[in-house]
Specification:
heterodimer; A: about 110 residues; mainly beta; six-stranded mixed beta sheet; four-stranded antiparallel beta sheet; about 0% helix; globular; B: about 110 residues
């Protein structure tokens, strides 16, 4: 597709359940990032994939969070045993690896844990 | 830890007013500063890429300046319109532990009243 696609756009889940969020980046973009924005907070870096290199997981807030990127394309962010503090907008972005190119963001998944 | 601060946190202006807001940061150790506009339920949209030479960038009624010595960037909107209502994010692009990523501010939420 022409842009970064994320699904679902909205997800309401019960506390303790697992959720999977999907990101389909722009074809040809080698870098893929996950961020989240909690209410009243800035965008928080979660994880970064670049080609076949080991991902930078330094932003994942706990071991309940994991992500994978299959075939250098689609990525899935999984949150296990969701907690209310996981409620946020989860944004995926992809990019070429030039410093001045910037990101192209998806429209996000709004996760609400009740 | 590099903190990117944006002020004000939120702003209401009347249609036709000009306005500006600030992105400040403590270090010039970065490659580029980006401004994004994020409308509700949409993807953040890239506005400007600011490089260390401090040139002013302009796009229609919106312009931005960067002062790396003093550690701030200003975003100006001339003659605000209701469609300018959005959250404006700034982000510093820098390399941390071998990974190039952005550090985002918390954003300025602008509401333009008709």
């Amino acid at each position: 597709g022409a842009g970064v696609s994320q699904s679902p756009s909205n997800k309401v889940t019960e506390k303790g359940k697992d959720v999977e969020l999907r990101c389909d980046p722009i074809s040809g973009h080698t870098a893929l990032y996950w961020y989240r924005q909690s209410l009243g907070q800035g965008l928080e870096f979660l994880i970064y994939f670049q080609g076949n290199s080991a991902p930078d997981k330094s932003g994942l807030p706990s071991d309940r969070f994991s992500a994978e990127r299959t075939g250098g394309s689609v990525s899935t962010l999984t949150i296990q045993r969701t907690q209310q503090e996981d409620s946020a907008v989860y944004l995926c972005a992809s990019s070429f690896l030039t410093w001045d190119y910037g990101y192209t963001f998806g429209s996000g998944t709004r996760l609400t844990v009740v | 830890i590099l903190n990117v601060e944006q002020s004000p946190q939120s702003l209401h202006v009347q249609e036709g007013d000009s306005t500006n807001f600030t992105c400040s940061f403590p270090s010039s150790n970065f490659y580029a500063l980006h401004w994004y506009r994020w409308e509700t339920a949409k993807s953040p949209e890239a506005l400007f890429v600011m490089t260390l030479n401090g040139d002013e960038k302009k796009k229609g009624r919106i312009s931005a300046t960067l002062n790396t010595k003093e550690g701030y960037s200003y975003l100006y909107i001339k003659g605000s319109q209701p469609e300018d209502s959005a959250t404006y994010l700034c982000a510093l692009g820098r390399t941390t532990s071998g990974t190039y990523k952005y550090i985002f501010g918390t954003g300025t939420r602008l509401k333009v009243l008709a």
